[in-house]
UniProtKB/TrEMBL annotation:
InterPro entries: ARM-like (IPR011989), ARM-type_fold (IPR016024), Arm_3 (IPR032413), Armadillo (IPR000225), Importin-a_IBB (IPR002652), Importin_alpha (IPR024931). This is Importin subunit alpha. One of its GO terms (biological process) is protein transport. SMART domains: ARM. The lineage of its organism: Eukaryota, Viridiplantae, Streptophyta, Embryophyta, Tracheophyta. Belongs to the importin alpha family. Pfam families: Arm (PF00514), Arm_3 (PF16186), IBB (PF01749). Forms a complex with importin subunit beta-1. The keyword Repeat applies. Residues 1-61 form the IBB domain. Binds specifically and directly to substrates containing either a simple or bipartite NLS motif. Promotes docking of import substrates to the nuclear envelope.
Length: 529
C-alpha cells in the first residue's frame, strides 16, 4: 500500500485503520456470576497455583483431604443423578456444587471424565421440577465458565436447545441461568454463536427486556446480547438487527453496566457495517451515544467512544452527523479533563477521522478550539496518545487550506511535530515528516504569491531544531524515512543554499521517484485497539 495518497484517499485509509475490528480486550470481558455461590474460575492456572502455594500448609492439607473425600464419591453420585427420586437428585446436585465452592481446579475435569455432565444436561428438561432445572443449570454454568474445551463438552451433549427452551421459563431464576449459559457458550466460538442466533435466541431475550425484569437479570441479558453481536466473522446482521431498537432504549438506562454492555453491542454491530450504522442512526440513538461520551463511568465512556468512532469512520456524511450532534465539545472535554489515557487516545482517533474529512469539517475542529489541545497532548501525553494527536494534525495538514494550515502553525504544531522526530517509531516519524511537508508546501505557496520573500515555515522548522532532526533521519535504517528526509532537505533547504543534491539510494534519480514505491510504514496505519 503506497504511503503517497491524495488527501481523500488518505482519509479513507485512516477510517479503515480505526475500525475496531478485533476488540480482543473487550471480547474477553468478565464472565458474570450466576448466583452468589457460583465460583468464577480464573483461566490462568499459574495464578491459581500461586494462590494455592501462598496458603498455609495446614490449609492445603485440609483442601487435599476434602478433594479426595469428594472425588471418592463421584462414581456413586453419577448413579444418583439417574434416580427417580427428586430429593436424591437435589441432594446429589448440591454435593457436586460443593466441589465448586472448594475452588478446586480438578473438580470439573473429574466430573467431565466420570460422565456426570450428561446427567446434568438431561435434568434441564425436567419441567416437572423447576428446582432441578435451576440446580442443573447452576452446575453447567460453572463448567461453561471455565474453558473453551469444557464449553464444547456441554454443547456436544445437546445443551444449547435446552437452554434456548429455558429462556421461556416462567421462573426468573431459571431464565437468568439460561441467559448466562448462552452468553458463556457463544463468547468463545463463532460457530456456537451462529447456531444460537439461527435458532432465534435474540427474540426471547428481547421479550424478557420488555417484561421490565429486575436489574441483575437485565445486566445478564445485555451481557449475553453483547456476546451475540461480537466475534469474527461478524454475525449475520439479520439475526441481530431486531435488537437494535431495544439497544436504542437501553442506552437511556441509569445503570453503568447495562449502558456499557449495550454500547459494546452497538460497537460490534457498527464495525464496518453501513447497514448497521444506518439502522442505529434511524433509531435516533446518536444524540444519546454522544452524550454518553462524558458519562461518569469510564467503562461507559470507552464503549460509547467505540460506537461513535465506528460511525465517523464510515464516510464524511456520518462525520457530519456526529458534528451536528455536538460531538466536538464533548471530545474537547475528554481531552482536557479526562485522566484515562485510553479515553484520551480514542478521543484523538475520532478527531483525526474528522480532520480527515472535508475543509468544513476541519474548520469545525478549528472553531471548536481543539487544535491547541492536540498540540499540548503531542508534547505531554503518553506515546500512544501523542501518536493519535499527531495523526489528527497530519490529517488537517493533508486536507486543510493554506489558511487552516496557518492556524495550525499559530497553535504551535511545528515545534510539536519536530519534537516527535526523535521517536523511534517509524510510523510516527513518517506522520510527522509528511505533516511538515504539507506545512512547507503551504509556506511555498505563500512565498510564490508574494506574501513573503522566504518560506517562513521552513525558517520556523529550522528555528526549533527541526532541520537538525530531519538531517539525522537521513541516516535512518528505514529506507522510506531516509528518502522522505532527503526529499524535504533538498526541496526546502539544500536547493536554496545552492548545494549539490545528494543521491537517493546510491543513484542520481530525482527525489520524487520514491513516491511510487511501496511504503513499509504507511502513515496513520497502526492498531487502534
Amino acid at each position: 500500500m503506497s504511503s503517497w495518497l491524495r488527501p481523500s484517499e488518505r482519509a479513507e485509509l485512516r477510517r479503515s485503520s480505526f475500525k475496531a475490528s478485533v476488540y480482543t480486550d473487550e471480547g474477553q470481558r468478565r464472565r458474570l456470576s450466576a448466583m452468589v455461590d457460583i465460583r468464577r474460575s480464573n483461566r490462568n492456572r499459574d495464578l491459581n497455583e500461586r494462590r494455592r502455594n501462598a496458603a498455609t500448609l495446614s490449609h492445603a492439607q485440609h483442601r487435599t483431604t476434602s478433594l479426595e473425600k469428594h472425588l471418592g464419591i463421584l462414581p456413586q453420585s453419577v448413579q444418583k443423578l439417574y434416580s427417580d427420586d427428586i430429593k436424591v437428585h437435589l441432594a446429589t446436585i448440591r454435593e457436586f456444587r460443593s466441589l465448586f465452592s472448594m475452588d478446586l481446579d480438578s473438580a470439573i475435569e473429574d466430573m467431565i471424565g466420570s460422565g456426570e455432565v450428561a446427567g446434568f444436561v438431561q435434568l434441564l428438561a425436567r419441567e416437572d421440577c423447576p428446582e432441578l432445572q435451576f440446580e442443573a443449570a447452576l452446575v453447567l454454568n460453572n463448567i461453561l465458565s471455565e474453558t473453551t474445551e469444557n464449553t464444547k463438552v456441554v454443547v456436544d451433549l445437546g445443551a444449547i436447545p435446552m437452554f434456548l427452551k429455558l429462556l421461556r421459563s416462567t421462573s426468573a431464576d431459571i431464565c437468568e441461568q439460561a441467559v448466562l449459559a448462552l452468553g458463556n457458550v457463544v463468547c468463545d466460538i463463532a460457530i456456537y454463536r451462529d447456531f444460537v442466533l439461527a435458532h432465534g435466541a435474540v427474540f426471547p431475550l428481547l421479550q424478557l427486556i420488555n417484561r421490565n425484569v429486575e436489574l441483575p437479570l437485565l445486566r445478564t441479558i445485555t451481557w449475553t446480547l453483547s456476546n451475540f453481536c461480537h466475534g469474527r466473522p461478524q454475525p449475520n446482521f439479520e439475526h441481530v438487527k431486531p435488537a437494535i431498537p431495544a439497544f436504542a432504549r437501553l442506552i437511556h438506562s441509569e445503570d453503568p453496566e447495562v449502558l456499557s454492555n449495550t454500547c459494546w453491542s452497538l460497537a460490534y454491530l457498527s464495525d464496518g457495517r453501513h447497514c448497521a450504522i444506518q439502522a442505529i442512526i434511524e433509531t435516533g440513538a446518536l444524540t444519546r451515544l454522544i452524550m454518553l461520551l462524558t458519562h461518569s463511568s469510564s467503562g461507559v465512556r470507552i464503549s460509547a467512544l467505540r460506537v461513535v468512532c465506528n460511525i465517523a469512520a464510515a464516510d464524511n456524511m456520518w462525520i457530519q452527523h456526529i458534528i451536528d450532534n455536538q460531538v466536538l465539545p464533548r471530545l474537547l472535554n475528554l481531552l482536557t479533563t479526562d485522566e484515562n489515557k485510553r479515553i484520551k487516545k480514542e478521543a484523538c482517533q475520532i478527531i483525526s477521522i474528522i480532520t480527515g474529512g472535508t475543509n468544513e469539517q476541519i474548520q469545525a475542529v478549528i472553531n471548536g478550539n481543539i487544535i491547541g489541545h492536540l498540540v499540548h497532548l503531542m508534547q505531554t501525553a503518553d506515546f500512544e496518545t501523542k501518536k493519535e494527536a499527531a495523526s489528527a494534525i497530519y490529517e488537517a495538514t493533508s486536507g486543510g487550506t493554506n489558511d487552516q494550515i496557518k492556524y495550525l502553525v499559530s497553535q504551535g504544531c511545528i515545534r510539536a511535530l519536530c519534537d516527535l522526530l526523535t521517536h523511534v517509531d517509524s510510523s510516527t516519524l513518517m506522520i510527522c515528516l509528511e505533516s511538515l511537508e504539507n506545512i512547507l508546501k503551504a509556506g511555498e505557496a505563500e512565498k510564490h504569491s508574494g506574501i513573503c520573500d522566504i518560506n517562513l515555515y521552513a525558517q520556523m522548522i529550522d528555528d526549533v531544531e527541526g532541520l537538525d532532526k530531519i538531517e539525522n533521519i537521513i541516516s535512518h535504517e528505514n529506507n522510506n524515512l531516509y528518502k522522505m528526509a532527503v526529499h524535504l532537505y533538498e526541496t526546502y533547504w539544500l536547493v536554496e543554499d545552492n548545494f549539490e543534491a545528494m543521491p537517493l539510494g546510491g543513484d542520481a534519480h530525482h527525489t520524487t521517484d520514491y513516491r511510487n514505491q511501496q511504503a513499509s510504514v504507511p502513515p496513520g496505519h497502526y492498531d487502534s485497539g
